[in-house]
Specification:
Strand content: under 5%
Helix content: over 70%
InterPro entries: ABC2_TM, ABC2_TM_bact-type, ABC_2_transport, Nod_factor_ABC_transporter
Organism: Streptomyces monticola
Largest sheet: none
Subcellular location: Cell membrane; Membrane
Distance between the termini: 36 Å
Low-confidence stretches: none
Membrane topology: Multi-pass membrane protein
Mean pLDDT: 86
Number of strands: 0
Number of domains: 1
Main location: membrane
Length: 260
């Protein structure tokens, strides 16, 4: 039984992987765009960080993690479109008729986007170091410890939206609005110290705030894994809550409306 379940999940993963490799352009754009924006934002962030008495700051300390977090949440659309695609292609009924259970359908759909999210973070941070002079003062292991739960949180946010939205248009609107809201409140667009008072009060309610808090602790303050346990724990809590929403509202017999 377990082998059969793993086999069905693996088949879904292979299918998603083939489709993503067939048209990688959207993923390439989501990786290149933050690098382009960093070039424009770095001087502004340099001024803001030096105003906060961050010694030797060149702006990349805010630009790289900020753009990495912001554009990672735009990856939510990739998660959703993979699910709505099945309805648009009229292949969802075939999946329903097969032996796959709802849990297997969800599990099979999160692995490829999760791998892409982790790879996107790695590329953006790596390119930030090479192109913009980012110097990580803390532990690289701590970067991974924050980045992986952040990536999983993004993927499960996408699955939760899929379970709640009936049409792909609804999903796209909510996903993009959330990405922009999370970027603003979380400190991706400006250092958290520069946020207005009302935004500072709301900021801890979004996962991007805790991701930026963790990355800032590592990049600027030189922290290690022990220093970012709180952000890691909160990101895991967000992921658990989004997983619960997905499992509660996801129904295999729900009809979704795609563009095609």
């Amino acid at each position: 039984m377990a082998d059969g379940s793993l086999g069905r999940i693996a088949a879904l993963i292979r299918q998603d992987g083939r489709l993503m490799l067939r048209d990688p352009a959207p993923l390439v754009v989501r990786t290149v765009m933050p690098l382009l924006i960093m070039g424009f934002m770095q001087p502004l962030f340099r001024t803001a960080l030096r105003a906060d008495d961050v010694q030797g700051a060149n702006g990349s300390e805010q630009a790289v993690p900020g753009m990495a977090v912001m554009f990672l949440f735009f990856l939510v659309t990739v998660v959703g479109f993979a699910m709505f695609r099945e309805h648009g292609w009229n292949t969802w009924d075939r999946l329903r008729a097969g032996p796959s259970r709802p849990f297997e359908l969800v599990a099979g759909r999160i692995v490829v986007p999760l791998a892409v999210a982790v790879l996107q973070l790695a590329v953006v941070f790596g390119a930030g170091g090479l192109l913009f002079g980012l110097r990580v003062r803390g532990s690289y292991l701590a970067l991974v410890a924050v980045g992986v739960p952040l990536a999983l949180c993004v993927v499960m946010f996408g699955m939760a939206l899929v379970s709640l939205c009936r049409t792909v248009s609804q999903f796209a609107v909510y996903a993009n609005l959330a990405a922009l809201l999370f970027a603003g409140l979380g400190g991706s667009l400006t250092p958290q110290s520069a946020l207005p008072d009302w935004a500072r009060a709301l900021a801890p309610g979004v996962p991007s705030y805790w991701a930026m808090r963790g990355f800032n602790t590592i990049v600027i303050d030189g922290g290690g894994v022990a220093a970012v346990l709180l952000p890691i724990g909160v990101l895991c809590a967000f992921t658990a809550a989004l997983t619960a929403v997905t499992l509660l509202f996801f129904r295999i017999d729900h009809r979704k409306i795609s563009w095609s």
